[in-house]
Automatic annotation (TrEMBL):
Domain HTH lysR-type: 1-60
Record's protein name: LysR family transcriptional regulator
Family matches, as PANTHER family: HCA OPERON TRANSCRIPTIONAL ACTIVATOR HCAR, TRANSCRIPTIONAL DUAL REGULATOR HCAR-RELATED
Record-stated family: Belongs to the LysR transcriptional regulatory family.
InterPro entries membership: LysR_HTH_N (IPR000847), LysR_subst-bd (IPR005119), WH-like_DNA-bd_sf (IPR036388), WH_DNA-bd_sf (IPR036390)
One GO CC term on file: protein-DNA complex
Organism this protein belongs to: Brevibacterium aurantiacum
Source superkingdom: Bacteria
Amino acid sequence: MQFTLAQVTGFIAVAENLHFGRAAEELNMTQPPLSRQIQKLEKSIGVHLFERNNRTVTLTPAGEAFLAEAYGLLASVERAPRRAQKIAEGSWGQITIGCTAVSTFGVLGSLVSTLAQRLPGVSVEIAEMVTAEQIKALSEGRIDIGLGRVGRIPETIDAALVLSEQLVLAVPSDHEFAARESIATKDISGQRLLMHDATKARYFYDLTVRYIDVEANEVAHSLSQILTIVNLVAAGRGIAVVSESAARLGVEGVTYVPLRGAPRDVVELHAIWNPESRNPALKEVLSLIRDE
């Protein structure tokens, strides 16, 4: 089934005027070529669109149905050039954001809200994954930008710092450390530690072993998801070194104690992306992140 835009335009003109002569005049053409256009259109789709006699022209039921679709088709054609321009400008399209669990608190919500206000033509998809998975997804084109913890930034990606915060110790609320205003990293000894996995959560694993003498403690579990870690702390299964934003998870029975002996802004959250990406919307999203 093939038909042309000129045939559809001619059909709409005849359907609105119910008169071939007036429709041809409206289209700045003569009646015979318009009649041939309609005949070719009817042959192409295999139905009669009009009932004709010497006095009147009326739409068939099939013609009435086709008219509704023809209006939509014509509108789509008229929108297409501007939509293509918007996509090229980056103000239209789709962006997929990979994020860690904690980045959904504050940073991700604020970013998505800003995108909705400033780039309403860009739809946003969210994929929750740890940073190592984000880097792999960026290389494979499955996400456009990530929000993750990056210790060493690979040469294959670019990054921009979006948040820095301090390390805290998550302890059960009835733990002896819970009543302290802060605790020195060197004083953590003989505790059951809930560790971040050395492979899937390498960033926090490295921070923990950098500032805590892990060998002076017992490692109860090695995990990759912050929510699981904090819930196990609440259950009394151990204590854990986490970022201060973990408190936003709102898990009851957990107290967060500031750590002395680690730099104030040692925990960093970066926006990461593939500089080879061909998604025009990415440039606009990065501009918004830098503005924020």
